[in-house]
Input
Amino acid sequence: MYSEYQHLIDLSDYPVSWWKKVVELGEKIYQSPADYAHVCDGKIMATLFYEPSTRTQMSFQTAMIRLGGQIIGFDNPANSSVSKGETIKDTTKIVSNYADVLVMRHPVAGAAKAASLTTDCSVINAGDGGHLHPTQTLTDLLTLKIEKQTLSGLTIGMCGDLLNGRTVHSLCKALSQFENNKFIFMSTPELRMPAYIKDIIKASGSVYEEVNTIEEVIDKLDVLYMTRIQQERFASVEEYLAQKDTYVLDAEKMKGAKKDMIVMHPLPRVDEITIEVDDDARAMYFKQAKYGMYVRMALIMTILSEKKSSETLKGKVYTGVRCDNPRCITNHEEYLPKSFRFSRDETLLECEYCDERKLI
Ligand code: NCD
Output
């Protein structure tokens, strides 16, 4: 299936050279924002946030305003026709007639992809459930480029809810495409990185290791990427409480880290990084949020200026086959074509919306 418009649903839909170009433009804008103050004059961006957000939504909005464009949208679907039962297809199709680019966050995996099948403008995925978050990854790449001067040869520790953390899924997919990166995953056995992400890392030739504590590996890390245990992704409060507070980065643990290690976090933080760490020069999370605005300016500019068409579904549509993930958009919006592709070893079918696997 093709769309006349260019979308950003997953960075893997683009070559690495394209991500680099966006990140480099983000750095140029960061150095000299005034030069870009009118590049989107007359353009309108819609932000459709079906799930709470502070940074992502506001950084997209300020990015567009700083480019000279204007913004519309909602951040509480209860105040829109969504509350009357309107489908994603209808809401996004209508809004796409008003705006030049639509930025969408949704609690269900594959929602932005679903929207991109039928909209009459570009769609940017600002987070789809526990699946992906490509614009956080662009933010993270710009942070690494400026703060570590490289995207290769890094040992990156990721800690927290690696199972449901869309930020770490997108970041692993991206960093595994650069040379000699090594991943160390710190999580409880229940919240390990999904198998499909680990397979992507292996296929790229990068390596990963899984451990249970921060202390045992912190001295090896160039980057420590902390994440929140996300209450909203758990089926019950009991399951959340059993995981909460397992990992806390504090000044004592920071003593074991390299002098030039940086601490990143997509934010919001709950209690996984103590406040005292904020004063450590290695704490990069507030700067990281700022870089996000510049890279989103670069992304909006790129998407609006390139105006390429996109291949939205590349797999095969199987009638009668359903995705097994209850949190996949195809199990919420019936009209969507159920499209699957083969896994690398051709033994599994992977849902094109949420990457859930099933035996053939
Ligand atoms: C993250 C998200 O929404 O996935 N936040 C963000 O976009 N900056 C992480 C989180 O909510 O924990």
